[in-house]
Amino acid sequence: MLARKSIIPEEYVLARIAAENLRKPRIRDRPRKARFIAKNGACNLAHKNIREQGRFLQDIFTTLVDLKWRHTLVIFTMSFLCSWLLFAMMWWLVAFAHGDMDPSTENATNSTKWTPCVTCVRSFTSAFLFSIEVQVTIGFGGRMMTEECPLAITVLILQNIVGLIINAVMLGCIFMKTAQAHRRAETLIFSRQAVIAVRNGKLCFMFRVGDLRKSMIISASVRIQVVRKTTTPEGEVIPIHQVDIPVDNPIESNNIFLVAPLIICHVIDKRSPLYDISAADLALQDLELIVILEGVVETTGITTQARTSYVAEEILWGHRFVPIVTEEEGVYAVDYSKFGNTVKVAAPRCSARELDEKPSILIQTLQKSELSHQNSLRKRNSMRRSNSIRRSNSMRRTNSSLIVPKVQFITPEGSQSASET
């Protein structure tokens, strides 16, 4: 307003606005990297520019199973309707070629010995109803085929074969959609966050996995892969470079007995891609750890696979999962409300390489944690003592306030007597 009235020069106003904008802190969010595997196990991948679409029709059964339910139901309905209409047209042509549609045949007597190919088929509607009765084997009894036309027998055989094929394909497709392996994977859960802590003197990457159903997963195995963008010495950029990392499992077959939630551990050693990463470097790393759990469903015998992933922001350094399995009245109880809960523990902030080169770092970290734990206990005990002293003093004050002082009474004779109430 002042600049418009020429009281303050316009150049001064613009310079002042620019200076105020520079003083304001600008917070730029770090661009989120696209995940290769979502938390629910879905692959975050889009296929584009596929020119050979005919390959999907060569594997028609898998294509039908992969379709959405609404598309599958539409195809299921249309396949039966089209087959009924197709054979209804064939039955109508057979009746028309034999002369069953001629009105003169309706008044034929028994002396003429006229026999139609299919009784009571005199229009396309009746031919359509007869086609439905043949394919779904209803058989109301009003329409029936005779031995007059060999062509009609051939059409009957052909329609039965086509109907059986459609029933087998569509019912098998619906059964496979309802019994897909990823449906069982919905009850296999992973912890939302992973942790890095010290176990047996080594830095370890750990996460928790559990099964919500009582029916077990047979021969369950866990695999971990690291997906990151790498550049080869030749200058080739690999956007999705997958590296397998070993899982610490005392069983040589790498199978786990998933009867209760387990903590899967990966020891960060020289073979691990996390060997040179410290706590400060973890937030700057552009990596994704993919966890794959495979096994056979006990009830159906179908192989299932559950997946999840952890990015750098979902890995907690210096934390440990709380125990959730307790023994209650001779039964092991699992508290799933604490499935992803973690607590802070003492862990060196350096990388595993530095920890191997200087083992004294771990000893110093443990000593510092022990001293801090003792100091916290001392502070807690001192606070308890001070609180108990304050409570005792307050109790004494309240008791002293309740004491009634002694009162002296003077008798008429001049003698004094003390009474206490």
TrEMBL record:
Species of provenance: Furnarius figulus
Keyword Transmembrane attached: yes
Protein name: KCNJ8 protein
Site residues, Role in the control of polyamine-mediated channel gating and in the blocking by intracellular magnesium: 167
Biased amino acid composition, Low complexity: 384-397
Pfam families in alphabetical order: IRK (PF01007), IRK_C (PF17655)
Keywords, comma-separated and alphabetical: Ion channel, Ion transport, Membrane, Phosphoprotein, Potassium, Potassium transport, Transmembrane, Transmembrane helix, Transport, Voltage-gated channel
Positions of the Inward rectifier potassium channel C-terminal domain: 188-358
Highest classification ranks of the organism: Eukaryota, Metazoa, Chordata, Craniata, Vertebrata
Compartments, as annotated in UniProt: Membrane
Reaction catalyzed: K(+)(in) = K(+)(out)
TM region positions: 73-94, 151-175
InterPro entries for this protein: Ig_E-set (IPR014756), IRK_C (IPR041647), K_chnl_inward-rec_Kir (IPR016449), K_chnl_inward-rec_Kir6.1 (IPR003278), K_chnl_inward-rec_Kir_cyto (IPR013518), Kir_TM (IPR040445)
GO biological process, one term: regulation of monoatomic ion transmembrane transport
Residue ranges annotated for the Potassium channel inwardly rectifying transmembrane domain, each copy included: 37-180
PANTHER family registered for this protein in UniProt: ATP-SENSITIVE INWARD RECTIFIER POTASSIUM CHANNEL 8, INWARD RECTIFIER POTASSIUM CHANNEL
Region of interest called Disordered, as start-end residue ranges on this chain: 372-397
Topology class, membrane: Multi-pass membrane protein
Gene: Kcnj8
